Amino acid sequence: MVAAALTNALVATTRFGYAPRPGELASVARDPRGWVLRQLDAPPAPLDPALPNSAAMVAELLQLRQDRKNQAADALKAANQRRRAVYLAETAVRTNAAVNGAAPLLERLTRFWSNHFTVSCIRPEITGFAGAFEREAIRPHVTGRFVDLLLAAERHPAMLFYLDQVLSIGPDSRVGQRQHKGLNENLAREMMELHTLGVDGGYTQDDVEALARILTGWSIARLRAPNAGTFRFYPQLHEPGSQTLLGKTYPESGYDQGELALRDLAAHPATATHIATQLARHFIADNPPKDAVQRIARVFRDTGGDLKRVTQAVVHEDAAWQPFAKVRTPDELLIAASRITGFTPPPPFLVQTLHILDQQPFFAPSPAGWPDDAGDWVGPESVLHRADCCQSFAARLPDPPDPVALADAVFGETLPDDTAQAIRRAASRREGLALLLASPEFQRR
Amino acid sequence: MTTTRREFLGECLGLAAGAFAVAGLPHAVFAAAPGNRRFVVVLLRGAMDGLAAVPPVGDPHYAEKRGAIALPAAACIALDSHFALNPGLKVLEPYYRRGELLLVPASGNGYRTRSHFDGQDLMECGLAAKTRETDGWLNRALALIQQQGASRSYDKRLGLAVGGAVPLLLRGAVPVASWEPAGFKAADPDFVAALGPLYAHDPLFGPALQLGLKTQNFSDTVLGDTAPKGPGGFGPKAFAPLAAAAGKLLAAEDGPRIAALEMLGWDTHVNQGTENGRLYENFSGLADGFDALAQSLGAAWRNTVVIATTEFGRTVAVNGTNGTDHGTATVMFVIGGAVKGGRLYGDWPGLAKLQDDRDLRVAVDSRSVAKGILRDHLGIDAASLGAKVFPDAAGLKPAEGLLRA
Fold it and tell me: Are the CB atoms for B195 and B226 separated by under 8 Å?
């Protein structure tokens, strides 16, 4: 095989996917770029239809809160167990989609955007529907328009809970006047800082407060309301009057005031640059070339945030085809190990291992999500944890394959001699596999 | 320091501290077996140096051919005028004196090409060549035991595995379940040492590993040198707790009767040491494991046979890094209350003439030892042993007189 084609196939399957399955490298090498791009037109991954939707889980939560005083300890325990079971099922489903799905790029994009719009079960109340957030708000839009993704994410109950929007009340709204309660700016701030403009996007504290006022009324349908547990605008919570955001005046229009503000944020040039930077950091390098970022941002602006076109632009950046430029996050490491070995550990092992490696699914430490930078994942403590993880994974393989043959299937001639030799010299099959997984090459993508 | 990290993790996850004590390297697998008799196979992965385990201090060529790593007779426990026991195995001396430990000083199977992967596969599948390494000889033996037992109400309850996975030795038609201690396994020092050279020149992983090891009380020179720097709080010390747990399960009235355990870390290419050092620590861990197994089996030890076997031995001569490379014949341990021990078994090929001018030659096929035990201890007839358990060695006679009458 031509060396360049093999290298490109390696990048295609690891940078844009998770890892080649044994045998996949050769077929991808015929047209690495095409293999990546075609996935953007792939049908959505079939997910387990038995997973409960967020409305059902939110309604359960609301019911539980309403009954709390009368609730027997047993009922609370049962509710917790159910949340935990749903959480594990969601984790298993997304893992399976990434390990076995036909379009790994779509899975990678799903995780990228899910991380961009982080909701975290650090707030335990959302444990039962954090997975549903990803399925309902993120997945359908990863190759759609950014503004639709933004609206879906910000209106989702998981986001409204996680960033306290359900607590925010316009001080001069009917309810605010009666209860003397007020704004919570959490969602408004993160929306501009993290989701759209970026921290250097040119907004001020006044803009944060204005957006917070604009967003009042965005909440979740109460138990007795129609469509309980879904997004609902409550006018009695909404701060009346026109607001000025980023120099533009938004007349009072109830819910529409917020949606218009979000549409403008999505179309703001700073948002294009922020998103382009993050995509380039994920798919090119921790410190991506500025000109590449600019080109991707331009496509974002020119297409009105068409994420399919934007992703294509990323794929067409030559800088994105340098092998081993990114370190695999723990989640990526486990998915890749599962793909190459054909063995996916059970969800409790995945959750526990990722907990130790600081990337437990749906438990990002902050609204900023997990970092996308090698230095945040590889340090003196974590490097040993990663080694533990690789050995532990190898120890669990029910039928360990030949590590030498597997290394060849995964890397071909791109594997450096010293790594190949160490794998050959390993004292057992499992040790050889552990070395393969822990090798500097497999630790990267 | 290591313990602190593990304990911290344990607390985070709400795990018992004990979970980590048994984690690390070995696996144990249990299965149903007949009556009161217990049979345990310990797989020593990595190729144990038999000439260090039971040094032939009386062999006229031993000191000269071994070189720098030859054990001085005075440092060892004399077994007879010819053989001694590595000081790391001193816990086993009373077992030998009581007649419960039998040593096979030059054992091996038909395998000669010195690859760990293939060697271990063949050790476990019990065949002479890699043809269909999908089931293990112990599983095929289990199948026979269960067939024979059908009319004698043998227990068909599933076995239990402690550790990550069922080894090939016990994989096959008879279902063997597994159990493992909860918690994250600790990477053992050998593995971390093997990573050292791979990470050494990596600008990200190299410094991280070096610093990580430093904080773990390892020498910071590990990266430039594949030598592990002594016990890091896990490794060989993890075997005894696992063996103790295995013994407890085997001792139970309704417990399993057959078990397989594993111990890693025998691939001593570098600085293997003599009367102390790395191999000494391994032997101590192994001996403590046998002892822990005996203690926890209690009265059932009387009806127990344990064999410990490895894929092949190591070179007679020391190599350039004060270790040994892949060789041929090695020591097999047969220990238990049912063993007719206190002696060495089989011929001694001597060190004058070596296999391929480098290795101890094989005098006893390890499969004949296994056959003898399967026949005399577990009641499998010789014809079935030849046809089903070791079909590639049908003509190989079971070893005679390994057990007490």
Answer: no
Distance set, CA A272 to CA A6, A198, A308 (Å): 33, 10, 14
The half-sphere exposure of B258 on its side-chain side, counting CA atoms within 13 A, is 29
Query: What are the structure tokens assigned to A38, written together?
Result: 């075609």
**Comparing C-alpha atoms, which of A117, A119, A100 is closest to residue A48?**
A100
Pairing status of strand A248-250 against strand B304-310: unpaired
Q: Which residue has the tokens 């007490």?
A: B404
Q: Which domains can be identified in chain B, with CATH numbers?
A: 21-179+234-393 (3.40.720)
Whether pLDDT at A311 is above 90: yes
Residue of B5, B12, B116 with shortest CB distance to A426: B116
pLDDT digits (tens, 9 = 90+) for B349-367: 999 999 999 999 999 999 9
Residues within 8 A of B (CB atoms), A 375-414 only: 375, 378-384, 387-392, 395-400, 402-404
Do A427 and B215 make contact, defined as CB atoms within 8 angstroms? no
- B231 vs A124, A432, B214, CA distance in Å? 41, 22, 14
Q: Is A286 helix (H, G, I), strand (E, B) or coil?
A: coil
Closest CA to B328 of B306, B349, B307: B349
Is the Cβ–Cβ distance between B331 and B343 less than 8 Å? no
**Chain A with chain B: Cβ pairs closer than 8 A:** 123
Strand partners, B332: B104
Number of Cβ within a 10 Å radius of residue A174: 15
Structure tokens at B229: 């720097």
Which residues have a Cβ under 8 Å from the Cβ of A110 and sit 6 or more positions away? A94, A97, A134, A138, A139, A142
Chain B within 8 Å of A143 (Cβ-Cβ)? no
Helix (H) or strand (E) holding B261: strand B258-263
**SS3 state of residue B304:** strand
Q: What is the largest CA-CA distance in chain B?
A: 66
How high is the pLDDT of residue B305?
97
Dihedral, CA atoms, A144, A145, A147, A152, nearest 10 degrees? Answer: -10
B211: exposed, middle or buried (C-beta count within 10 Å: 0-12, 13-18, 19+)? middle
C-alpha–C-alpha distance, residues A161 and A158, integer Å: 5
The ipTM, to two decimals, is 0.90
Say yes or no for a CB contact (<8 Å) between A428 and B264: yes
- Angle at CA B320, nearest 5°, toward B120 and B221? 90
Report the distance separating Cα B209 and Cα A135, nearest Å.
Answer: 38
Q: What is the pTM of this model?
A: 0.73
